[in-house]
Amino acid sequence: MPRVSQDHLDARRRQILDGSRSCFARFGYEGATVRRLEEATQLSRGAIFHHFKDKESLFLALAEDDATRMADVVAEQGLVQVMRNLLDASNGSPALGADWLGTRLEVSRRLRTDQEFRERWAQRSEQLTAATRARLQWQKDAGNLRDDVDIDVLTAYLELVLEGLLSHLAMGLPAQHLSPVLDLVEESVRRHRTH
Length: 195
What we know:
This protein is 77% helix and 0% strand. The protein is an all-alpha fold. It is elongated and about 65 Å long. It has helices at 6-31, 34-41, 45-51, 55-77, 79-90, 98-113, 115-141, 151-170, 179-189.
């Protein structure tokens, strides 16, 4: 039997993650049945679970993949840009994609209701915190960040704003008026120079 190349395995894994992202976003964790995952990925359960031990492992890998994408945005543009992308997604723009938003909202829900998931996710969520802290340090070194507040405090502040935004979006509240709020958040961490 011929061996399958690593490129093929990686492409199949990406196909599963991309298809399951839309399934979890549309139906939530509980509603993403194996049959729905098969339809969304266009693969058999055997093919899906060859790459992932179970549905929980698949969802965690998907959430981790999205967290990595978020951390990349944070590293280049900051956590407020991630929030702007979430707003764009909630308003129909594909900046990060509505599916990404749906997955992130499902992560937030599971963090509140599933202790075991919370413990597993805690190990992975540090990636976003580290990226935020590094971006803030870079801004501080460039003289753009206020220097009267510790970076750890600013990191916690921005993460709380992100969680508040996610709660707002999860409740289905209007989001089109929130861009000026994010302008205010961004301004609140900037260094103000006197001329």
